[in-house]
Design brief:
By secondary structure, the protein is mainly α. 41% of the residues lie in helices and 4% in strands. The chain has nine helices and five strands, in the order H-H-H-H-H-H-E-E-E-H-H-E-E-H. The strands form two sheets. The protein has a three-stranded antiparallel beta sheet with strand order 1-2-3, with no helix packed on it. A two-stranded antiparallel sheet has the order 4-5. Strand 4 and strand 5 form a beta hairpin.
């Protein structure tokens, strides 16, 4: 007969509970998130200015760190419930039951608000953590496993995508996926990722990721920059035609020395108009 060993790592009123960060990252649709260590969150320097961006900052932070702290509102509500039970319990006029129900609903609303604030706070912390060396390594593992999907463009040959945001502020844009090969943005293929906030990954992550892993940047540069040209009976359609290719310059790359010289000038300085 095998001996049962009790696991005390999770406990609550029912005897078990899940830590907030692993539970949040393991939710359905949160595959793009990586787990941020508590050491990073407990460093006040990493939390600079976040208290001004997220409401109920302290309560949300305590929820993320699994600190059992009773809020002031909940403490007052508990006292109100006990007072109603003592004062109105003997009268039995129905006021006690009504007050208790209203207080419990108010407590539930407060917990939901704090839970939403905790998700926002963790997302902004996540955007900062993935720019660090451990965070880049954690995202690199997801990148290798193709957790972010692959580029739908045919000539990218299944290049893995990177999540990014169009803004660093909450409530601006949803998450987008960046392809290092064609250097374009795409929408997530799964509907469960379309509602994710883009600020939780930020605008700097793809650039920092590619510069940190030089081998990936070199691999992308060696890839064939082939584009597709429309043809009718073997003849290419003229670029000036109504049905001709548009925005073709987005996928053009320097070839000759003159092209590279012009590219360097356009990248670092304003070209002179003759």
């Amino acid at each position: 007969m095998s001996e049962y060993v009790e696991d005390n790592s999770h406990s609550d009123d029912s005897g078990t509970y899940d830590e907030w960060i692993p539970s949040f990252c393991s939710r359905f649709g949160h595959e793009y998130f990586c787990q941020v260590p508590t050491d990073f969150i407990e460093d006040d320097f990493n939390m600079t200015s976040l208290s001004q961006e997220v409401p109920h900052y302290r309560k949300a932070l305590d929820l993320i760190l699994d600190l059992e702290v009773v809020s002031d509102d909940e403490d007052v509500e508990d006292k109100d419930e006990s007072a109603d039970a003592n004062g109105n319990g003997n009268g039995n006029n129905g006021n006690g039951a009504g007050t208790g129900t209203g207080s419990s609903n108010k407590t539930m609303v407060n917990r939901n608000i704090i839970g939403h604030a905790a998700e926002q706070l963790y997302g902004l912390i996540h955007a900062r953590y993935i720019l660090t060396k451990p965070g880049l390594q954690a995202m690199a593992e997801k990148f290798d496993h193709k957790d972010f999907g692959i580029c739908p463009r045919y000539f990218c040959h299944g290049m893995q995508l990177l999540p990014c945001g169009l803004s660093d502020s909450i409530g601006k844009h949803a998450v987008r996926l960046y392809c290092p090969s064609c250097q374009d943005l795409y929408l997530p293929q799964s509907s469960r990722h379309l509602c994710l906030e883009g600020a939780y990954w930020g605008t700097s992550f793809p650039g920092v990721f590619l510069k940190h892993f030089k081998e990936l940047e070199e691999y992308v540069e060696r890839k064939n920059k082939e584009t597709y040209d429309l043809k009718v009976f073997g003849f290419k359609i003229n670029d000036q035609a109504v049905s001709g290719p548009r925005m073709k310059w987005l996928r053009q790359y320097p070839v000759t020395e003159e092209d590279w010289e012009e590219f360097n000038k356009c990248e670092f300085e304003m070209p002179s108009i003759e």
